[in-house]
Amino acid sequence: MPGKRLSVINALTSWAATSFLFLAVWLLLDWWLSRSFSPFFEEVGIGSARGDGISSSPIGPIHYPSIAISPHNELYAAWALYDLRDLQLAWIDVRYWDGSSWAYVPCKPAGGNFCSDDSFSTTPVMAFAPDQTLYLAWTANAGESEIYIQQRKDGHWREVGQGSASGGGVSNTPGDSFNPSLAVAPDGTVYVAWQDSLADSKQIYVRRWQGTTWEEVGNDPANGQGISRSQDAQDPRIALDSRGTPYIAWVDSSTGGSFIYIRHWNGEEWEEIGTGLASGTGIGDGGVFSLVLSADDIPYVAWMSRSSKDFDWVIKVSRWSAVSLEWETIDPEASRADWSRHSPTLAAAPDGKVYLAWENSNLWGEGIFVVWWNGRDWQEVALGSGSMNGISGHDSRDTDPFIAVGADGTIYVAWLAQQHFRERDNVYLLRRQE
Q1: Cβ(228)–Cβ(252) under 8 Å?
Q2: Strand partners, 184
């Protein structure tokens, strides 16, 4: 009998230990899936990735979040804010982190909290110059769509040349101009590229500011067929190497499908990077994409592409090899749990690392994933940053990420988050100090 009792006690003890372990694992998994955000990232100010986030505006829907970090690690965020009280209005909202709160950066000459006049203003993009000057470009529509740009230095906003943020802006073309992309060279030269549409033709145009005037870069880069030289070119992205050489990629649908094309300025003309990279199938087929140059001047392109399943999207990534003189495929591995991946965004760090973020849908919901390229494959920047719910948690619908890296190596990720019990989006932001 004592032996039998001992066996029963041992069995009960084993059962209790197993049950306790199962309960602990279940509670840990439940906490992990229901957390507001990754414990390995931190908010920039209390509530920057919860509740109303850093936007906290009751006026209307928010779109196109972006962030910019100065050479001295000052952090700015911008987005388009649609006004439900007047469907003809959309504003550019710019905030900066002052160390304790997210403060407005009013740009209008008459004051107020927004950076655009009474027009339909969308697609804001920002870039810093080496001297700490902040440049802001956006699409303004007050009858015709044009590209506007302002600069902020010593706490004051001003135009970048007369008329850069009024009338025809820096685009000033007969057609409609959309989707600016902005970059500043080490010598302070400002480049802006945009999509220009006239009749049935869509082209990619580019201009640069060298301190006195906005000039074209090459022959006819801001009129006619521009640098795209096709009939259906959209949504440009511009990036510069360490010498200030501009690279521009875009989505081209002239041949029937949607493909990623790319050119760079060689000092005399806009040339392809590799054979057939601005014609045919280009780098690859797809839609929303991102372009970045690493610290060692290697161009990387990430884009959305249809998977073998008609309803799924996957992320494709390619980089240029100066050795093989070809584009190498370095796609992030897809998990079996992933249903679809959207909206890739790339950023380069001063130490040579390249980071990739995207919107991911899987069994655990929708989240923002973040990984980095270690030279062989993509790996998580922290536990869970590229799996399950990613860095954004489980209590919101998370879309449209934007990633940037500061001069000190700190990673910043912003995105749109819609709480399950709310109808509008807010801008969320997290950082990780490497």
Answers
A1: yes
A2: 190
- Concatenating the DSSP letter of every residue in 360-381 gives EEETTEEEEEEEEE-SSSEEES
Rounded alpha-carbon distances, angstroms, from residue 156 to 66, 106, 211: 21, 10, 17
Confidence of residue 26 (pLDDT cuts 50, 70, 90): very low
User: How many angstroms separate the Cα of 71 from the Cα of each of 104, 132, 185, 405?
Assistant: 21, 7, 13, 11
Helix H or strand E segment including 177: strand 176-184
Q: Compute the distance between CA of residue 165 and CA of residue 364 in angstroms, rounded to an integer.
A: 44
Q: Are 203 and 196 in contact (CB under 8 A)?
A: yes
Structure tokens that stand for 80 in this block: 């388009």
Strand partners, 261: 250
Q: What pLDDT was estimated at residue 222? A: 63
CA 420, CA 21: separation in Å to the nearest integer?
Answer: 32
Question: What DSSP state is assigned to residue 331?
Answer: P
Confidence label for 31 from pLDDT (cuts 50, 70 and 90): very low
> At 369, which amino acid appears?
F
Q: What DSSP character marks residue 232?
A: B
Q: Where are the domains of the chain?
A: 1-34, 40-432
DSSP alpha helices (H): ranges in 1-105?
2-34
Tokens of 63: 């779109």
CA 158 to chain centre: 26
Helix (H) or strand (E) holding 1: none
Class of CATH domain 40-432: mainly beta
Distance CA 332, CA 275 (A): 25
Chain segment 121-145, per-residue pLDDT in tens: 999 999 999 999 999 999 998 778 9
Average pLDDT, integer, range 15-26:
54
Please give the single-letter amino acid code of residue 316. K
DSSP string, 401-434: EEEEE-TT--EEEEEEEEETT-SS-EEEEEEE--
pLDDT in tens, 307-320: 766 558 889 999 99
- How far apart CA 325 and CA 321 sit, in angstroms, is 5
What is the Cα–Cα distance from 206 to 68, expressed in whole angstroms?
A: 21
Structure token pair of residue 429 = 């932001």
Distance CA 337, CA 314 (A): 13
Could you tell me whether strands 156-159 and 176-184 are parallel, antiparallel, or unpaired per DSSP bridges? unpaired
Residue 389 corresponds to which tokens in the numbers above? 């719910």
